[in-house]
Amino acid sequence: MQRLLDEYDRYLSGRSPVPHRAYAPTFDMRETQDAYELEGELPGVKEEDVAIEFADSQTMRIQGHAERAEERKGSWWMAERATGEFQRSFRFPGTVDQDMTTARLKDGVLSVTVPKIRS
Q: Which pLDDT tens digit goes with each residue over 37-86?
């Protein structure tokens, strides 16, 4: 509630409507017999603005940048969607196959499949 009041105050004063800030997008993760499957919400994010990398054999990091669409006419009165830099890290219980990991961004949902390495 306080954030909305602050944004409304900025709107009334003519100051910048929403500062860019870091955030952590929400993800769902499930485990299958062969892989870990993640789905995260990234509305309006372009594929080229997302990077997926592995910090080590069990840790994956998803990071990127989300921007608000161009203003046409008028000012934002309310802005609830997160913008700015984002990052999430996921640590898997076992070693994963980094080379066979696949990702797809469609309709604002990032789907990542991380295959397990069987011992």
A: 999 999 989 999 999 999 999 999 999 998 876 656 667 777 777 788 99
Q: What are phi and psi of 57, to 5 degrees?
A: -70, -10
Give every CB contact of residue 3 below 8 A, 6+ residues apart in sequence.
none
Contact 81, 43 (CB under 8 A): yes
Contact between 37 and 28 under an 8 Å Cβ cutoff? The reply is no
Number of other CB atoms surrounding residue 45 within 10 Å = 20
Which phi-psi region, left, alpha or beta, contains residue 7 (left: φ > 0; alpha: ψ -120 to 50)? alpha
| Angular region, 78: left φ>0, alpha ψ -120 to 50, beta rest | beta
pTM for this model (two decimals)? 0.76
Q: Closest Cα partner for 60 from 85, 22, 93?
A: 93
Q: Which of 33, 31, 39 is nearest to 62 (CA)?
A: 39
Q: Which domains does the chain have, with CATH numbers?
A: 20-115 (2.60.40.790)
